[in-house]
Amino acid sequence: MSILSGKNVLLGITAGIAAYKTASLVRLFIKSGAQVKVVMTPASKDFITPLTLSTLSKHPVYSSFTNEEDDNAVWNNHVDLGLWADVFVIAPATANTMSKMANGTSDNLLLATYLSAKCPVYFAPAMDLDMYKHESTRVSFEKLKSFGNIMIPATSGELASGLVGEGRMAEPEDIVSFIESDILNKLPLKGKKVLITAGPTYEAIDPVRFIGNHSSGKMGFEIAKASANLGAEVILVTGPTHQNLVHSLVKVVPVTSAEEMYQEVHKYYKTIDVAILSAAVADFKPKAVALQKIKKKSDTLRLELERTKDILASLGETKTKQFLVGFALETNNELENAKQKLKKKNLNLIVLNSLQDKGAGFKGDTNKVTFIDNKNNVTEFQLKSKAEVAEDLLNEIVKHIHA
């Protein structure tokens, strides 16, 4: 999964010969998981058709303030377009358009949208060699960068004029890679390693039966996704679950039992910056595991259980630099029990949820949580989706580790 997955990418196309490459650029953005809309200058339609871009992006293409072919003249709102975008990419960016951007000229829909955008703006210059080297173009580059826009440098190569030199627009693959790297390098957890546990553990009774619980793993997987989307390198140690996550920054380590989870967690813990233990680990396991399937010889079955290793407590005991987060699922005296667990296990933060709260707990898509930190600060949240809870948790962690 790309860091662009789920983001809204607005592609601005201006009237340069390199516009023909934007068909590939749209496809690459979509392949990365982004939603793509296209806004064109009127003259750019001489180089690539709106029909091509609309077909590839699966959205209407915008090039004027009203739909000229529509008798009802629907207004294309540049403000809405600018606010929709998480990323605005202008490629190719001609000398003419860059000059207008640098000086606040707004004589077409693309430029009006640029002036309305609140998101990061990337521009990929494309022009002939002499135009690229002209002092006025250099001034446009510097002014645009001083406004906070990000320049995707042109490359050297054969140009439309037949000259060979600087001014060739970066290739679509390189544009996408540049944007992904730039976003990643600015994320608050870039360079951090995050260890997450998720799901239940299954403790074997015999080769076909086990003791388990109702954890679906949804919360842990959402936390892993949110961590990766903030730039972290994630190790996700997960018990048996139907959840799935494919992300370039997430390594999934499947386990079955509490003992396997204990071993895998400790394998990585020394190099970890943040550990978030959201798994529902079994507290007990059968003392002896039958080698053959147990037959039904009576109406009752006696199992002798023994404690499993307390993974969270063991991490608290050996904690050095790690920011350690635990979860507490309670049914009564919730806040006091969570505070005791926080202190006893030497945590930095604990996430409390209660089975008394409708919509919280196992299996569902929602959760209702309270954060308690080791300075006794308590923050309560309303019922939210588990994805939103994961984002709240990561924001809280970022706030603490960058304090």
TrEMBL record:
TM stretches of this protein: none
GO cellular component, one term: phosphopantothenoylcysteine decarboxylase complex
GO biological process: coenzyme A biosynthetic process; pantothenate catabolic process
Cofactor remark from the record: Binds 1 FMN per subunit.
Assigned EC number: 4.1.1.36, 6.3.2.5
Keyword Metal-binding carried by entry: yes
Catalytic function, reaction form: N-[(R)-4-phosphopantothenoyl]-L-cysteine + H(+) = (R)-4'-phosphopantetheine + CO2; (R)-4'-phosphopantothenate + L-cysteine + CTP = N-[(R)-4-phosphopantothenoyl]-L-cysteine + CMP + diphosphate + H(+)
Keyword terms of this UniProt record: Coiled coil, Decarboxylase, Flavoprotein, FMN, Ligase, Lyase, Magnesium, Metal-binding, Multifunctional enzyme
Chain intervals for the UniProt region annotation (Phosphopantothenate--cysteine ligase): 194-403
Cofactor or coenzyme needed: FMN; Mg(2+)
Pathway: Cofactor biosynthesis; coenzyme A biosynthesis; CoA from (R)-pantothenate: step 2/5; Cofactor biosynthesis; coenzyme A biosynthesis; CoA from (R)-pantothenate: step 3/5
Domain Flavoprotein span(s) in chain numbering: 7-180
SUPFAM superfamilies for the chain: CoaB-like, Homo-oligomeric flavin-containing Cys decarboxylases, HFCD
Binding site residues for CTP: 283, 293, 327, 341, 345
Coiled coil: 291-355
Record carries keyword Ligase: yes
Region described as Phosphopantothenoylcysteine decarboxylase: spans on this chain: 1-193
Pfam families: DFP (PF04127), Flavoprotein (PF02441)
GO MF entries: FMN binding; metal ion binding; phosphopantothenate--cysteine ligase activity; phosphopantothenoylcysteine decarboxylase activity
Family of the protein in this entry: In the C-terminal section; belongs to the PPC synthetase family.
Function: Catalyzes two sequential steps in the biosynthesis of coenzyme A. In the first step cysteine is conjugated to 4'-phosphopantothenate to form 4-phosphopantothenoylcysteine. In the second step the latter compound is decarboxylated to form 4'-phosphopantotheine. Catalyzes two steps in the biosynthesis of coenzyme A. In the first step cysteine is conjugated to 4'-phosphopantothenate to form 4-phosphopantothenoylcysteine, in the latter compound is decarboxylated to form 4'-phosphopantotheine.
Protein name: Coenzyme A biosynthesis bifunctional protein CoaBC
Organism: Hyunsoonleella jejuensis
Organism phylogeny: Bacteria, Pseudomonadati, Bacteroidota, Flavobacteriia, Flavobacteriales
